[in-house]
Amino acid sequence: MLQKKGDFCSGEELSRELRISRTAVWKQIKTLREKGYLIEAAPRRGYRLVGLPDRLYPEIFTVGLNTSLLKGPYYHFMKVDSTNRALRQLAEEGKPQGTIVIAEEQLQGRGRLGRSWHSPPGKGIWISVLLKPPLAPENSACLTLLAGVTVQKTIQEVTGLETGIKWPNDILYSGDKLCGILTEIKAEMEALHYLIVGIGLNVNQGKSDFPPELAKSSSLKIITGQKQDRHQLTTALLQNMDNLYRLFLQEGFGAIREMWKGKNITLGQKITVHRQGAASFSATALDIDGKGRLKIVTEEGREDTITAGEVSLNPE
Ligand code: BTN
């Protein structure tokens, strides 16, 4: 029916094609309506799909998706504590690379450095992807940067907005945060078992949807002045991530590093480095190394490389 959107399909046709009884067709139509699909029924003509629900059902966003690595299985929740947490559980049960959890709402969305992530229902894309790259754990930051490039590219393609990436992977527009990415790994000293890339993209929030402490956050709707199609964004996001991840596995980090550098707003800037449990300090961001780490020079002229933590851009 999704492929035939807008065309009538008789109950008889559906029953024949799906090899189910007319009563079963009727029951399925009822279930779809309950899920939010707008289905018109007309005597003698049958049923017609006239509207899709604004819910990120995999059966909708996978239409037209052509991925070779991120192929699911897909899990959609109306509410979940955290998609990263739910995916970790699935990973522990042995689910394959490419498993994806997506939710309309997160009750305990997790941010970087122990912070929480505000995830109101139906307004954003709260998604986690399971990856199992053959990498040493110390190289996992490359995937964090890859995720940032994925989101930057997706926003550009779908909305035309040019956003910037702040190391490691915050997506900003005019200084306001549109997207955060939380990468979590399970690893031993030598071996990376799996990596969970959790993406939180603010799509259709209005200003009043953000609590006061998130005054420096924004959404695609606020910036463009238009409600955005979350299905289209999700399809593009997964397609771009699949393409970039394949490129990474075939050719290494080089090309992704260049893409990241082309869209970054950190390098060459004066920054403050914040690390958990340590004092903040000022520095200048110099470059990204081959492992996705940030090279800096402190005010005292000491060069260093940062793997974790957060940087803020100092005002000019
Ligand atoms: C940040 O602090 O900037 C990272 C935020 C990451 C939020 C996303 S939303 C989907 C996934 N599930 C979570 O609990 N967190 C990440």
Textual characterization of the structure:
By secondary structure, the protein is of the alpha+beta class. Helix content is 29%, strand content 29%. The chain contains eight helices and 15 strands. The chain has helices spanning 11-18, 22-34, 58-61, 83-92, 141-159, 220-224, 230-251, 254-263; strands at residues 8-9, 38-42, 46-51, 74-80, 100-106, 124-131, 164-166, 170-173, 176-187, 192-202, 270-274, 281-288, 294-298, 303-306, 310-313. It has a seven-stranded mixed β-sheet, sandwiched between helices. α5 crosses α7 (230-251) and α5 packs across α8. It is elongated and about 80 Å long. The chain starts with 7 loop residues before the first strand and ends with a strand. The model has no long low-confidence stretch (mean pLDDT 94). Bound molecules: biotin. Biotin binds at residues 82-84, 106, 109-112, 115, 117, 119, 126-128, 170, 180-182, 198-200.
Shape: elongated
Number of helices: 8
Structural class: alpha+beta
**N- to C-terminal distance:** 55 Å
- The level of helicity is 25-40%
Total strand segments: 15
Strand content: 25-35%
Any ligands, ions or cofactors bound here, and which? biotin
| Radius of gyration based on Cα positions | 22 Å
Overall mean pLDDT stands at: 94
Uncertain regions: pLDDT < 50 for 5+ in a row? none
**Side-by-side strand order of the widest sheet:** 4-5-6-10-9-8-7
Report the major sheet.
7 strands, mixed
